[in-house]
Amino acid sequence: MTATELLALISAALLLQLAAGIGWTVWRQRATDASAKPATPTMAPHKSEAAWAGWRDFRVAQRVFEDEAQSQCSFYLQPMDGRPLPPFKPGQFLTFALDVASRPLDGVAALQPITRCYSLSDRPDPAYYRVTIKRMPAPAPEFPPGLSSNYFHDHIQVGDVLRVKAPAGHFFIDPDPNVPAVLVGGGIGITPMMSMLRWCIAQQPQRLVHLYYGLRNSREHAFKRLIEEMAAAHPALKLNVVYSRPCDSDLQGRDYQHQGHVDLDLLRRTLPHGRYQFYVCGPPALMQTLVPALAEWGVPVSDVHYEAFGPASVKLPGAAGSDEPVATDIEVKFHRSGRTLTWDGRDASLLDFAERHGITVESGCRSGSCGSCETRMLEGTVQYEHAPDHDFPSGHCLLCVGRPSSTLVLEA
Question: How confident is the model at residue 367 (pLDDT cuts 50, 70, 90)?
Answer without folding.
Answer: confident
